[in-house]
Amino acid sequence: MRVGPGDLGGGQEQGGADHGVAFGGESVGQGSPDGVGGVGGGRALSLITTNWPEGPRRGRALGWYATAGACGFIGGLVLGGVLTEVSWRLVFALPVPIAVAALLAGLRLLPADRRGSAREKLDIPGALTATGALMLLVYALTQAPAYGWLSARTLVLFAAAACLLALFLRVESRSRKPLVPLSFLTRRATARTNLTIFAMWGAYTSFAFLATLYLQNVLGWTPLQTAGAFVPLGLANGALAPFAGRIAARFGVHRTIAAGMLLLALSYALFFRIDPGSPFLTVILPVMVVNGIGTAATFPALNMSAVAGVPDRDQGLAGALLNTFMQIGGAVVLALVTAVVEAEQQADRSDPLADYTPGTAVIVAAVLAGLGAAVLIRHRTDSRNH
Question: What angle do CA 201, 41, 380 make, to 5 degrees?
């Protein structure tokens, strides 16, 4: 398996095709099995949380929200696979009509802003410094295997990313209308939820990439067959997500998140069983089904946790932060996994599966780290309250 920056960007024809199925196909579902991502995710979440009071009704609404996303995820996979059979580039055109239809529906169905409401000034310096820091970090991670982790180029990139991040924190601390108030960012409940979704989505993005490469490059599946392999994940998620609110209400949001994260870790650990001729029913299917169940348990509960106890005026900020950490996790963990896989590929070119073992290990470790951070932060919070 050849994995590198060229594959991530579609620089090689085979790598581009793989990437088109794994990520371009999901774009209809807005990037995840729950269909949440991008700029609109935080706004959509705030619409739900401000219109349904905290409790079982909100849980049910978030469950159906995740189910709708799962339907988009499945449709995106199938349509993406069909288009990739023609050309992987077509998957980038597929979201356009979907976005236009969503825009028209939103103008008609969503409540309008109040007339005369003040429009807050955008924090341009904060947005530029935060975006620049994240771009440099991801770029450094993807370039490090080629130039060396301790090379001057790599160290300069990491140092520049750290400087921009420090500048962002300084800008936010002095801004009258910060992009992200630091007091909100350091809120323990917010940090716990954001770290968890960072790890959860980063692990899933990396798994989707590795699994797609395995199915196409090792098993020789077509893009459409590869897309079909992910459909059980979406079906399991969509079937169980409507009940996520009831589950969280009965067992508690934090217990539901912990159980879901453990299921996700189990699903990725099952991927260690792959070999050059793994049958779908006994090896690949269990991974997808367990992952779908874990996602159905975790994602709605994380949304409930993100906005619990947050005033209505800050619901949009809480949802936006959750989505931001989700997208950052996808970029950072995927860059780290591809860097590890690339390094292993250069060290051992004889074994076609040697690259997948360390990559999968990083994915499992990411989920467990997110779970550990969530548990530790909650434990410290509870201990201070008693």
Answer: 55
Q: How far apart are the first and last CA of the chain?
A: 53
Region class of 309: left (phi > 0), else alpha (psi between -120 and 50), else beta: left
- For residue 355, what are its two tokens? 């690259």
pLDDT tens-place string over residues 93-149: 888 988 899 889 888 887 776 665 556 677 889 889 988 998 898 888 888 877 888
| pTM for this entry | 0.78
**Cα–Cα distance between 223 and 86 in angstroms, integer?**
10
String of DSSP letters for 277-324 = T--IIIIIHHHHHHHHHHHHHHHHHHHHHHHTT--GGGHHHHHHHHHH
Q: Which residue has the tokens 């934090």?
A: 254
Sequence-separated (6 or more) residues with CB below 8 Å from residue 272: 357, 360
CA-based R_g, the chain, Å: 21
Q: Which of 190, 199, 185 is nearest to 298 (CA)?
A: 199
| 18/143 Cα distance (integer angstroms) | 20
